[in-house]
Structures are given as structure tokens and as C-alpha cells.
Specification:
single chain, mainly alpha, 2 helices, elongated
């Protein structure tokens, strides 16, 4: 029961982190606006990138544990 709730929480956080990453990309890249200057990842974007990877791994591990638990 705890694993089900934990998977729902991790899944919701994963969806949120993916949506926050997609917020920065818009239609400006379709019209050639992205190649005008060099853009490095800021600290918030780095944290968001790494947290997405960690949440993805957690979600996969919990899913396997739920599969083996049955």
C-alpha cells in the first residue's frame, strides 16, 4: 500500500518536472530564435534536469518492486 502511494507521488513530481523543463521551449525555436546566442544551463535548470533523472529512476525502481511484490 505504501509503495502505491509513493509511486503516485513520484509520478506526479516527475510529470511536474518534465512540464517545468518544457516551459522554457516555445515557438521561438521554430522561427530560428534559438541559435542567435550561446545559452548555458543555469543552476535551476541543472537541478531540474538532475531531479528528473533521479525521479525517473525512482519511478522505475518502485514499479519493479510493485511488480515483484505481487
Amino acid at each position: 500500500m505504501v509503495l502505491f502511494i509513493l509511486e503516485i507521488i513520484v509520478g506526479a513530481l516527475l510529470i511536474g518536472s518534465i512540464l517545468l523543463q518544457m516551459q522554457g521551449s516555445g515557438l521561438s525555436t521554430a522561427f530560428g530564435g534559438a541559435g542567435e546566442f550561446y545559452r548555458s544551463k543555469r543552476s535551476v535548470e541543472k537541478i531540474l534536469f538532475w531531479s528528473t533523472g533521479i525521479l525517473t529512476s525512482l519511478f522505475a525502481i518502485i514499479s519493479v518492486l510493485l511488480l515483484l511484490h505481487r
